[in-house]
């Protein structure tokens, strides 16, 4: 009898985890309530981040490892990463005076990255679409942009090629005997269950007796424009307040993404983005809304639940930069399950 594992949720984290378990020889079944990519995994800004949360957080460690693993997995599995950089222009004398402080702060949050202060002409050479009001700029190298729909499709195909399956089903509880579904049926025969249910993960963990987790669900809005097609991610000079703030982000299909704006959409924020460009953006072609699942202390929570028949791992609060961290979260799940010397995307870890 082959060893069987189950994963709840076919987002980028669940699919990467399923692939990692299949790599260990498990026959994996992924249960998805709606369809693969129905959650935040296709409703995000598509950025592989470099600047990370402050030290000491899982989000920082796993996003850094994930960004590295994405480069290996993209080559192995066949999805595209557009390599790019972040540019933050200083548009006023005050912002220009603050630029060295901003550069030092970014370097502290991304010690492994190249962080440089650019002259006006260097900045405009790297990003010709920047506003001519640019006085100087700070640049952080090493960013990536993916097409999360292409990534999800690639992961679904890769899982199919291992003989594992993605089935439709809403899991209401993980029990020592197996998975229980909304209609009361029980699916037995798994020795591993991974809860990667995104927005629904805290609820599922609690229903499964894995503890109680408070999460906040915060909406984010992104607007997509037909152009201009940028070379770099351009962000406004940061202002005090929570969150990374949004940016103008070039997409793989040539469109321009503005955002995300968190909470209520404020007209002023969009105008702030467009002041960064020398020409106004082209036609707005879409608006995308996603939900960020934010847990206590704004960190990723990974908790295990061992019973004689079943080892379960619950992933809670997988907010931004969860897309960046996804392959590293899969490796972290293997470690939590007690597997050592894991192979991932053809690489021994
Ligand atoms: C607006 C926005 C912008 C973002 N931008 C970035 C970015 O640029 N870079 C970055 O790194 N991160 C970004 N993020 C974060 C990133 O998108 C998420 O961290 C990541 O997609 C989480 O993936 P996931 O697989 O954990 O969850 P999800 O993609 O939400 O997947 C969970 C899946 O589980 C299914 N499900 C839920 N409950 C059940 C159940 N009971 N039974 C079966 N299935 C169930 C859902 O239908 C869903 O398909 C952004 C997030 C938002 C909201």
Short description:
The protein is an alpha/beta fold and about 350 residues long. The chain folds into two domains: about 5-80 and about 150-215 and about 295-349, FAD/NAD(P)-binding domain, CATH 3.50.50.60; about 80-145 and about 225-280, 2-Layer Sandwich (D-Amino Acid Oxidase, Chain A, domain 2), CATH 3.30.9.10. The strands form five sheets. Strands 7-2-1-11-18-17 form a six-stranded mixed β-sheet, sandwiched between helices. Strands 3, 4, 5, 6 and 13 form a five-stranded mixed β-sheet that branches. A four-stranded antiparallel β-sheet has the order 14-15-12-16, with helices on one face.
Describe the fold and architecture:
- The chain has 349 residues and is an alpha/beta fold.
- It is built from 8 helices and 20 strands.
- A 6-stranded mixed β-sheet has the order 7-2-1-11-18-17, sandwiched between helices. Strands 3, 4, 5, 6 and 13 form a 5-stranded mixed β-sheet that branches.
- Helix 1 runs parallel beside helix 5 and helix 2 packs across helix 8.
- The radius of gyration is 21 Å and the shape is elongated.
- It binds flavin-adenine dinucleotide (FAD).
- The site of flavin-adenine dinucleotide (FAD) has 42 residues, from helix 1, strand 2, strand 12, strand 16 and helix 8.
């Amino acid at each position: 009898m082959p060893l069987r594992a189950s994963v709840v949720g076919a987002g980028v984290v669940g699919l990467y985890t399923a692939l990692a378990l299949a790599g260990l020889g498990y026959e994996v079944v992924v249960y998805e309530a709606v369809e693969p990519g129905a959650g935040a995994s296709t409703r995000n800004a598509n950025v592989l981040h470099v600047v990370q949360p402050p030290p000491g957080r899982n989000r920082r460690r796993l996003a850094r490892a994930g960004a590295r693993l994405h480069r290996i997995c993209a080559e192995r599995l066949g999805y595209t990463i557009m390599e790019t950089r972040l540019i933050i222009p200083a548009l006023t004398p005050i912002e220009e005076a603050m630029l060295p402080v901003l550069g030092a702060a970014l370097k502290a949050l991304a010690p492994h990255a190249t962080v440089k202060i650019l002259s006006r002409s260097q900045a405009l050479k790297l990003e010709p679409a920047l506003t001519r009001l640019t006085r100087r700029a700070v640049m952080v190298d090493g960013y990536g942009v993916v097409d999360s729909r292409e990534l999800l499709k690639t992961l679904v195909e890769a899982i199919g090629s291992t003989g594992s399956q993605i089935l439709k089903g809403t899991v209401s509880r993980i029990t020592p005997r197996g998975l229980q579904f909304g209609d009361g049926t029980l699916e037995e025969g798994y020795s591993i269950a991974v809860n990667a249910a995104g927005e629904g993960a805290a609820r599922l963990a609690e229903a499964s007796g894995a503890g109680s987790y408070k999460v906040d669900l915060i909406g984010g809005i992104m607007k997509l424009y037909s152009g201009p097609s940028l070379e770099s991610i351009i962000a406004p000079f940061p202002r005090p307040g929570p969150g990374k703030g949004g940016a103008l982000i070039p997409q793989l299909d040539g469109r321009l993404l503005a955002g995300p704006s968190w909470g209520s959409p404020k007209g002023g924020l969009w105008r702030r983005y467009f002041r960064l460009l020398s020409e106004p953006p082209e036609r707005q072609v879409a608006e995308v809304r996603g939900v960020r699942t934010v847990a206590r202390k704004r960190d990723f929570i990974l908790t295990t639940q061992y019973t004689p028949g079943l080892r379960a791992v619950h992933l809670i609060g997988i907010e931004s930069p969860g897309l960046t961290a996804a392959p590293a979260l899969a490796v972290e799940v293997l470690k939590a399950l007690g597997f050592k010397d894991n192979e991932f995307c053809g690489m021994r870890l």
